[in-house]
């Protein structure tokens, strides 16, 4: 990054852009958004605390889900697959209901762009297009042409009416086939995976902020507190948080290895798992925040599906979803998004608008009391244990070195029903970790 652009980025990052609501959202695939089922979802949202939706704009296949005007590269490669036939009408409907709209833009796992622009893609030693263990090609995070394409999509999403752009898959592939990939020095210029992912975030944030577009990013939960996992995927939690409006860790209980947080089977204890993950988030961000600097609002993804592929799992229903939401509040955070790849949500787990307002007032009152107690107890805080101090040298979940088999980093559209057996992590570390899969 040039010195001039560093200065520009710093200036653009001074004031974070806040959503008009504290987001309580759900994910909707592009396929669902363009189907008859979309109206049913809107009908179920009506009167509940849900005030935001995350909709696929660039999906897991690399396809753009509606017609994009003024997006030259999208047009050039024919990336549009018009799941959503009438975006203006859909957006008008959402705005009329007061729903905050977030555009999901899948970044570097883009099999469509990789096939259309192989020169922008990961290559094997023999010069062939690299494919992961699912046979999908990835684009090269070191290529700035890819960055510009993603910004182009983000800008077009904003023009279509979306309130926020949310990047997903802003990372490197992690399966064993990555050993075959060769990176050209003229692209890397000595920069590590974490260097380039953070640099992309800075670049995209600068460009979109110039248009007053809020920017968020989805990240592995496992990178929080783990240098090993951060280096594997290229995501450093605190660094990314310094260049975003919102950071969205994927902390589903089902994706924490047995023993994490001292919990035998994290999927069976959703409240404890989410609370522990967010406690680690707060510790990481507070420890690394530069004095006087801005930092992203933490808005976690929560689990609204049953991980039946696990040997030790429980069925997720009203109590399990609500327990996760309560854990978010008890950890001191206010925003959350529910993930279900199939877009089937536990509607009876949600409060009415009136109930949510009363809950917010109660939380605010409790936090006021807790702040006074925290100030009194701060001087008595003991230093971190040896285990806590050493966790950054370990993989927190042990499975991040393998590409996950299913999930939110997931299937899209009609393929979203597919379930596969998730590999058990080869290492069990009693801390945290996670990924975005269902």
From TrEMBL:
Protein name, as recorded: DUF4015 domain-containing protein
Region called Disordered, residue ranges: 364-438
SUPFAM superfamilies in alphabetical order: (Trans)glycosidases (SSF51445)
Start and end residues of each DUF4015 domain: 25-345
Superkingdom, taxonomy of origin: Bacteria
Sequence ranges of Basic and acidic residues compositional bias: 390-405
Organism: Lacrimispora amygdalina
Pfam families (UniProt xref): DUF4015 (PF13200)
InterPro entries (alphabetical): Divisome_Glycosyl_Hydrolase, DUF4015, GH
């Amino acid at each position: 990054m040039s010195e001039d652009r560093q200065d520009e980025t710093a200036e653009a990052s001074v004031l974070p852009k806040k959503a008009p609501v504290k987001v309580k959202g759900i994910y909707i695939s592009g396929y669902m958004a363009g189907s008859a089922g979309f109206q049913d979802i809107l009908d179920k949202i009506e009167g509940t605390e849900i005030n935001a939706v995350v909709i696929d704009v660039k999906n897991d296949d690399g396809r753009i889900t509606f017609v994009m005007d003024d997006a030259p590269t999208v047009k050039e490669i024919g990336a549009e697959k018009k799941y959503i036939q009438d975006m203006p009408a859909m957006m008008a409907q959402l705005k009329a209901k007061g729903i905050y709209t977030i555009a999901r833009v899948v970044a570097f796992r883009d099999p469509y762009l990789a096939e259309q622009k192989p020169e922008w893609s990961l290559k094997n030693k023999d010069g062939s297009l690299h494919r992961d263990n699912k046979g999908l090609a990835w684009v090269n995070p070191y290529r700035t042409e890819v960055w510009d394409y993603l910004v182009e999509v983000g800008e077009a999403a904003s023009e279509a009416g979306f309130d926020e752009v949310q990047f997903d898959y802003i990372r490197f592939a992690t399966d064993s086939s990555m050993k075959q990939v060769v990176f050209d020095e003229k692209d890397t210029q000595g920069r590590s995976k974490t260097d380039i992912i953070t640099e992309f975030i800075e670049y995209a944030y600068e460009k979109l902020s110039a248009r007053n577009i809020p920017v968020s990013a989805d990240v592995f939960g496992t990178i929080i507190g783990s240098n090993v996992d951060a280096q594997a995927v290229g995501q450093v939690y605190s660094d990314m948080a310094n260049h975003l409006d919102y950071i969205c860790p994927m902390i589903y209980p089902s994706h924490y290895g047995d023993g994490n947080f001292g919990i035998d089977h994290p999927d069976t204890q959703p409240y404890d798992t989410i609370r522990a993950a967010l406690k680690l988030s707060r510790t990481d961000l507070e420890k690394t925040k530069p004095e006087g600097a801005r930092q992203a609002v933490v808005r976690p993804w929560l689990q609204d599906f049953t991980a039946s592929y696990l040997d030790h799992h429980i069925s997720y229903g009203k109590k399990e979803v609500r327990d996760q939401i309560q854990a978010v509040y008890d950890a001191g955070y206010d925003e959350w998004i529910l993930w279900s790849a199939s877009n089937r949500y536990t509607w009876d787990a949600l409060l009415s608008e009136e109930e949510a307002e009363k809950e917010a007032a109660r939380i605010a009152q409790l936090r006021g009391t807790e702040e006074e107690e925290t100030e009194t107890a701060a001087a008595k805080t003991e230093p971190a244990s040896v285990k806590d101090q050493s966790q950054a040298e370990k993989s927190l979940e042990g499975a991040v070195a393998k590409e996950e088999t299913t999930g939110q980093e997931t299937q899209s559209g009609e393929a979203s029903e597919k379930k596969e057996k998730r590999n058990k992590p080869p290492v069990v570390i009693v801390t945290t970790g996670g990924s975005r899969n269902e």
